[in-house]
Amino acid sequence: MAPAATLLDVVADDTLQAQFRRDVLAGLSQPNKAVPARWFYDHRGSELFEQITGLPEYYPTRTEIGILSERCAEIGEAVGPGRVVVEFGAGSATKTPLLLDSIAPAGYVPVDISGDFLRESCVPLEQRYPGLPIHPVEADFSRPTQIPAALSHHSLLGFFPGSTIGNMEPIAATDLLRTMRATLGDESLLLIGMDRIKAQDVLTAAYDDAAGVTAQFNLNLAHRINRELAGTISIEALRHRAVWNEDRSRIEMHLEATREIDFEAAGHRFAMRAGETIHTENSHKYDRRSATMLLLAGGWEPRHVWQDASDGFMVILAGAISSALTA
Question: Are strands 238-245 and 137-138 parallel, antiparallel or unpaired?
Fold first, then answer.
């Protein structure tokens, strides 16, 4: 195994591929191996996630769609017309029409790390909204994003559905919200989805479905390392695990080695003991108080909260706190 200093050397190339390489090498070099969840989403990973959203066990997508559908008039009134919608981690943009139909937007800027998948998802939206300026941006939205100049003079509405904020540790989630605040600017709004704490069996099933699609999604990260970083990971020696961490109010996903394995990635050697894991994703769950505290820490003040009948999911509209107050 190469020394940590070598693995963490700064390189001039700052493409997404270079970022992937750095994150993988740094994550596999830790005593507790971990790779950021954003690297799930190559083209294949994005396809698998879309399959997950339709599974019977995976409640967040259909619950959030229900809220957006049933409360669209209220959301439209609260947001107002004429804003440019900036969707972070747009993916297939399946929820986007519910929002666009309710607010009379001035434009749409989907931002996603999977460029090919992003551009494909824009095609039906361009057909559905022929007069709407649509400018896809391939980027890692955890970093400040440049809004296309043609739309930057409008007031902006950030759209971050799907409880993706829960994939991050609270400190990282706060940093992301601050980055969104910097990207969107003063007078902006943010419409964000957050999953609520609920029964453990419901949560575990949502991340370990009977059909094994989530397992494929998790294992695709190892496939991606093999494909893109000349990796030699024995996929058959890994298995998907999803566990509830009560102390941190989160579901954790891991790739667990079923036997001792040695492998390479990007020219560096690594080893895993039987039972050792690569921590691939967290999905934090929130109550109203913790959601409010997170948003405030990130520079956003909650204005409206919409929930489903069972209080299982929240869609929150927040306004940017004055930069003078957050400085």
Answer: unpaired
Q: Which residue has tokens 């439209």?
A: 76
Residues 230/234/239/245 CA torsion (nearest 10 deg): -50
CA 238 to chain centre: 24
pTM to 2 decimals? Answer: 0.84
Write out the two tokens for 22.
């750095």
Amino acid found at 312 = G
Instruction: Compute the radius of gyration of the chain from its Cα atoms.
Output: 20
At residue 115, what is the residue type? G
Helix runs in the chain, H state only:
4-7, 16-29, 43-53, 59-70, 72-79, 96-103, 115-128, 170-184, 200-206, 213-228, 288-297, 323-326
Query: Over its length of 327 residues, how does the chain's per-residue pLDDT go in tens digits?
Result: 333 333 333 333 468 899 999 999 999 999 999 999 989 989 899 899 999 999 999 999 999 999 999 999 999 999 999 999 999 988 777 899 999 999 999 999 999 888 888 889 899 999 999 999 999 999 888 889 999 999 989 999 999 998 899 999 999 999 999 999 999 999 999 999 999 999 999 999 999 999 999 999 999 999 999 999 999 999 999 999 999 999 999 999 999 999 999 999 999 999 999 999 999 999 999 999 999 999 999 999 999 999 999 989 999 999 999 874 555
